[in-house]
Amino acid sequence: MDHKNLEAWKEATKFITEIYRITQNFPQHELYGLTNQIRRSAVSIPANISEGCARQSDKETIQFLYISIGSIAELETELLIAQNLGYTSNIDEIMEKLIKIRSLILGLIKYLKNK
User: Fold this and answer.
1) Per CATH, domain 3-113 is 1.20.1440.60
2) How confident is the model at residue 13 (pLDDT cuts 50, 70, 90)?
């Protein structure tokens, strides 16, 4: 399975650009803290999709897809913290995109389990 053909990977990769735009306005003292952690979580989503697709079995692929789901949960938490600290406002649109990406990944997991 080529990860570059998957909608989940495409959407997650596009999403990273938005995360970088949002976090570039965070305070400088957060560069190696919350800014870095948010970016790493966002990058982890498509990275684990692609790594999973490079594995030999569907079971291994599914495991990495679940890791991507975990990265989404982590990112949601970090974005809420950033909003609570006043670093960003109105994250509803971003959260909706994360829900869409999660849904695409869960659909892929379901497909692989039922193969």
Assistant:
1) yes
2) very high
